[in-house]
């Protein structure tokens, strides 16, 4: 059975003259790390002899796509992944999560997914971004690790912060945590994220607290302030963060510092392979930084 390096460690960092705890889920495993390792932990550990193939869908540089390709490789399953479109440049010059998933044996298909395939007993259909009830299994383990850290370090209370795509990680973390969980929507707006929460959990008392940035950002678009704070994070902490989610996460966190009444634990959710394709784009666009 494939084992992950758990619990992930917690570092203490200083950023912009404030102290934070940093949950290093980016270090869980060299190939299978971050929030996707937590979301898909159930499928990694469970005995599923009838499953022969994973099917999922989403963007062509998705972190979930890459993590599912690793899962399929470990479990010796086939993996079909559906996308709306593959740009000619990416097809001819594979990079980032797209290239790594292909290397792991992913079959990528342009077009709409056939949902009827989910009726097959030997196929596992995973929703976009890993928005699955099965994710609760691994995220409860994460909540338990954080609680053990808090108790063993005699911390009265923690405020947990992480940026969200589908919000699955933040939702189940709040459901199983004694600490308050704060998040900010990165893929859609606040209403989108609340809808995602409700699809998995109708009890709103388990929903995290949503914080919005002062400026509206479009997911996947390049912003100078994203690149600047990403560089500052690396300079001040000597830790590489994700370029897609973490910049908005830290910008939002810093703009709402006054509402946090307890020590803050930020969850590093991995996704660093995606930087291989994002960083060159930032360098080309903002050469002056």
From TrEMBL:
Protein family (similarity comment): Belongs to the ACC deaminase/D-cysteine desulfhydrase family.
Entry protein name: Pyridoxal phosphate-dependent deaminase, putative
Cofactor(s) named in the record: pyridoxal 5'-phosphate
InterPro entries attached to this UniProt entry: ACCD_DCysDesulf (IPR027278), TrpB-like_PALP_sf (IPR036052)
Gene3D superfamilies tied to this protein: 3.40.50.1100
GO molecular function, one term: D-cysteine desulfhydrase activity
Record keywords: Pyridoxal phosphate
């Amino acid at each position: 059975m494939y084992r992950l390096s758990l619990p992930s460690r917690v570092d203490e960092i200083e950023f912009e003259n404030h102290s934070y705890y940093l949950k290093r889920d980016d270090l869980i495993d060299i190939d299978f790390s971050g929030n996707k390792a937590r979301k898909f932990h159930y499928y990694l550990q469970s005995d599923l002899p009838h499953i022969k193939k994973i099917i999922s869908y989403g963007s062509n540089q998705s972190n979930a796509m890459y993590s599912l390709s690793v899962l399929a490789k470990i479990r010796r399953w086939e993996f079909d992944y559906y996308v709306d479109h593959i740009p000619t440049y990416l097809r001819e010059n594979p990079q980032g999560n797209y290239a790594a998933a292909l290397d792991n044996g992913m079959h990528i298909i342009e077009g709409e997914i056939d949902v009827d395939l989910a009726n097959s007993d030997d196929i596992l259909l995973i929703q976009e971004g890993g928005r699955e009830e099965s994710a609760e299994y691994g995220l409860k383990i994460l909540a338990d690790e954080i609680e053990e850290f808090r108790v063993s370090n005699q911390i009265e209370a923690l405020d947990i912060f992480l940026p969200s795509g589908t919000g699955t990680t933040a939702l189940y973390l709040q459901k199983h945590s004694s600490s308050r969980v704060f998040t900010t929507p990165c893929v859609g707006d606040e209403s989108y994220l609340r809808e995602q929460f409700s699809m998995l959990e109708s009890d709103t008392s388990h929903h995290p607290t949503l914080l919005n940035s002062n400026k509206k950002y479009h997911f996947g678009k390049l912003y100078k302030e994203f690149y600047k704070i990403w560089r500052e994070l690396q300079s001040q902490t000597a830790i590489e963060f994700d370029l897609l989610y973490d910049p908005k996460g830290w910008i939002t966190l810093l703009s709402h510092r006054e509402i946090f009444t307890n020590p803050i634990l930020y969850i590093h959710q991995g996704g660093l392979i995606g930087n291989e394709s994002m960083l060159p784009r930032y360098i080309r666009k903002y050469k002056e930084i």
